[in-house]
């Protein structure tokens, strides 16, 4: 099965979410609540279940940590170099920076599952658990330097990073796995169906959140941010993985994660911390649509 065909269910669910939201089914108030339900319950349930029941020793933690830190620093350096060249207004650069660095975890885990099966999910989940706090810290630093607002309540922002449901779910799942925890049949009978709901609901919520009107008059800033995120980021990852001679499973997961479009939560952060929220909305929706083409191309070429 080709990569493009394997990813049809992933992008099909995103399109379905978009269509359902536009026809107002099952109601305008449903989708924000569905996203919250997925983020705080279904997603952590899936991570806890998959990581607890995963084969022990299957995750190369050291390789993932080193690779993630290196490619985040290199891509950050590329974005800073572009800022020196183009001299964007501060708020504009924060949105370009987020668009070039952040990733959509729902699309990532769904793509890993469809392309490579559950055996690769633990490595993907651990990589995400490392990437999310590091990316958030880097983005907060960018807002502190270039954002239009003075960051207040920094402790609250950092607390939100540490208590991110994905990070908590990974931590619990890894701990249970290391302790050899086995789910009681009753508990497994509850958590397994919840975990199976996570990715379909998450992908439809991504689609429901798309704003195609934001793409009107898309700027050079959007184009540059998208090129860095969808094309340059995967190439940087491949170079680092090749130099470090990282194992095949970790390499596959890292390259796929580096191909992902930026996260929809970027818009909220841009609005709260003084970024260019309109540009961020364009980047989020535009990259998600572009990823339908770029993910199959980059995965086929690089993996």
From TrEMBL:
One GO CC term on file: plasma membrane
Organism superkingdom: Bacteria
Subcellular location field: Cell membrane
Keyword Transmembrane helix in record: yes
Transmembrane segment boundaries: 37-52, 64-86, 124-145, 157-178, 190-210, 222-243, 249-269, 281-302
Alphabetical GO biological process terms: transmembrane transport
Entry annotated with the keyword RNA-binding: no
InterPro entries recorded: Mem_transp_PIN-like, Na+/solute_symporter_sf
Any one Pfam family match given in the protein's UniProt record, by short name: Mem_trans
Membrane topology category: Multi-pass membrane protein
Location, primary (coarse class): membrane
Keywords: Cell membrane, Membrane, Transmembrane, Transmembrane helix, Transport
Family: Belongs to the auxin efflux carrier (TC 2.A.69) family.
The name this protein goes by in its record: AEC family transporter
Organism lineage: Bacteria, Pseudomonadati, Pseudomonadota, Gammaproteobacteria, Alteromonadales
